[in-house]
Task: inverse folding
């Protein structure tokens, strides 16, 4: 039986837009619940400006709070060299560095042009020896400001970064949820063909338009075996009614289990954790499986 | 540009489980709204026992109320010969006959064994000359009572019915929403290969576990070009919290438009109809696109 890996990004992408601060202990309890249900990799938080994203201010405590779970691979999101250094100092050994394909989104996200971000990352590379690296290619398909993104632009950015760290895992992110399964499969196929030296690919999808699982399946058909997902489908913005978040971990796991693909996750054990996460004050949960299985 | 056809089944599968009776005029207004947004085919209602499904009691009035829309192909669901005759008498010219693959579901649905349903249909065939026919193969993938359904059982039923009316459109129905895209593609491919005389295939999906669009895409990859969908994702059961319905018409249209596939639907015109349908008292709407586009 073949298998895939789900990276639980709820503690970062899911919690990040939630207004009321989630106590660190409650975050840790959810992460530990995920680990107990079989999740082996988590994006546990982000080292970012605490003023910009107050919900992530406890990243160091989260990392320390997971130190006794050596089997859990905890990656931390970092947007620039300053925060990389903070993360390494706090003991992070797996970083998720993010650069956007679109100028508008990169500027909004990290206040740099794409070229500046790439140059800055190039200077940083010597400091990253021995650190496991995920590269999040944001707006790989579509940009909230500029609309559709050309495949060529995404290939160009991936190529420049792959030349610097070909051993990194490259994750194509459907930031807006407006990609479709044909687009997702096409771009992943093109990337894998263009950069055979890159051995690790991942897909990060949002379910804003209901295409989350269709896109995950599209990426799977193109050979991707690592998928980001957030417990309870968290990730929506509390200030935008109807906004919805990442594909739900429990839905992604359900789909692959139905397809006969191993995820290592015990859905029965994950469901109460998803119900707990769905009840976080200020969160906007998504996904179907939690309720569908809950009422059986 | 290639194209697909969406059959709007909200007025039947979507309205059917809604408790409070929807006034006939309101049903007709929603169907007309769909037609004005470009939908060319609708399952407008069902001729069934009024005691069993009171919401469908006005099927004759619905049919009469659409008589001035000759460009709208209105199919009516019928479960047995008695109701077929009622539908034909009321002027129906496109029937959707339903038989389940699983014994338990067929017995629950039409109180007959599968063999009895097939024999009864065989006797009925001479009366159906000149009537356009859709055959709904219910529980083609999974049964709410018996669980997973063998591909061989579905192929067997389709084969027996195709021998009687090979010109019919055969629709594989994921009654429980527990199919996955691999299963959907595999079974459609197997059917098309086994019964080359059948020229018309369709897929009917539910989004109960969030796989609705992934499954629609799976069927599309297997060559299917006709898809059932319900406006606002209606179809859940008001007595089962969390139950969810058919794939939402607006989500299916959105996905195909993103894929560059023509549906003939003007999403901007369809959205207010979807919002109206989502607000029906007693309904349990689903889908993402309605809210995602509504807040832009």
Result:
């Amino acid at each position: 039986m073949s298998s895939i890996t789900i990276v639980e990004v709820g503690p970062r992408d899911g919690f990040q837009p939630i207004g009321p601060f989630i106590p660190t202990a409650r975050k840790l309890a959810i992460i530990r619940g995920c680990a107990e249900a079989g999740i082996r990799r988590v994006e546990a938080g982000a080292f970012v400006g605490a003023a910009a994203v107050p919900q992530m201010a406890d990243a160091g405590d989260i990392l320390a709070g997971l130190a006794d779970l050596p089997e859990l691979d905890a990656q931390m999101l970092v947007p620039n060299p300053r925060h990389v250094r903070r993360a390494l100092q706090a003991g992070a050994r797996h970083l998720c560095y993010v650069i956007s394909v679109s100028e508008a989104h990169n500027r909004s996200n990290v206040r740099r042009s794409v070229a500046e971000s790439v140059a800055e990352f190039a200077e940083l590379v010597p400091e990253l020896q021995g650190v496991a690296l995920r590269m999040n290619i944001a707006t790989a398909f579509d940009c909230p400001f500029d609309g559709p993104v050309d495949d060529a632009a995404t290939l160009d950015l991936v190529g420049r970064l792959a030349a610097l760290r070909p051993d990194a895992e490259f994750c194509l992110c459907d930031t807006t949820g407006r990609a479709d399964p044909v687009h997702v499969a096409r771009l992943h196929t093109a990337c894998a063909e263009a950069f055979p030296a890159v051995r690790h690919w991942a897909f990060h999808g949002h379910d804003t338009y209901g295409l989350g699982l269709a896109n995950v399946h599209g990426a799977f058909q193109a050979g991707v075996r690592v998928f980001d997902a957030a417990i309870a489908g968290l990730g929506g913005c509390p200030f935008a009614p109807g906004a919805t978040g990442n594909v739900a971990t429990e839905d992604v796991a359900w789909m692959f289990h139905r397809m006969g693909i191993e995820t290592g996750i015990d859905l029965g054990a994950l469901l109460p954790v998803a119900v707990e996460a769905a009840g976080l004050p200020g969160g906007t949960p998504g996904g179907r499986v939690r309720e569908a299985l809950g009422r059986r």
In short: Residues 5-294 of chain A form a domain with the TIM Barrel fold (CATH 3.20.20.70). Chain A has one domain: 5-294.
